[in-house]
Amino acid sequence: MSRALQLKFVAAVPDVGQLPETSAEVAFLGRSNVGKSSLLNALAGQRLAQVSATPGRTQVLTCFQVERGRGTLVDCPGYGYAQAPKKLREGWLPMLEGYLLGRENLTKALLLLDGEIGPTDSDLHMLGWLREHDLDVALIATKRDKIKPSQRERRRIDLAAACEVDIGDVFWVSAEADFGLSELRDQVRDWLA
Asked: Which pTM was predicted?
């Protein structure tokens, strides 16, 4: 089992130009309430990112330094349903697009998908946009613990098919049950190397 990622909060900013310089960066993307902040906390083995039952709490680009300068992780605002003022939500998409297209050292975009319900139309739209812009993306299926054991294999097959990838191209994780975190930590370190 790999050790937790050593993360340190650096900045929470509304504009990509305000993010600190970095040698390499991994972005956490996904719908509101898919578990981005929970996954970040689980990878770090401590509570750093704000977690809420209310969708849409991450409203800025939240940046964490990894292991004393090995790169950064960025928790991005969620897309889709969020309990936030409409004007604020409308600003998230341009912020997200500016970040994804303007961050030179972005080495990987992690697209988190709710493993319990599978990819939504907005998830597939985001995946298509990332592919269209030639961004390097990894698919992370969250909430594995919420799926009945007898349905897990079928869910893996269906999710991969909906995203048009091989079944082995999706990382399955559970922040609650500590499933898949060790492998994902190792991958994050590789993506930042």
From this structure: 0.90
